[in-house]
Amino acid sequence: MHLARLAEAPPNLQAAARSAVFQSMLKAGLVEQVPVPERVTMLLRSTAAGLQAVGEPSAVEAAGEAAKSEQEGREG
Question: Residue spans with biased composition (Basic and acidic residues) (predicted)?
Answer without folding.
Answer: 67-76
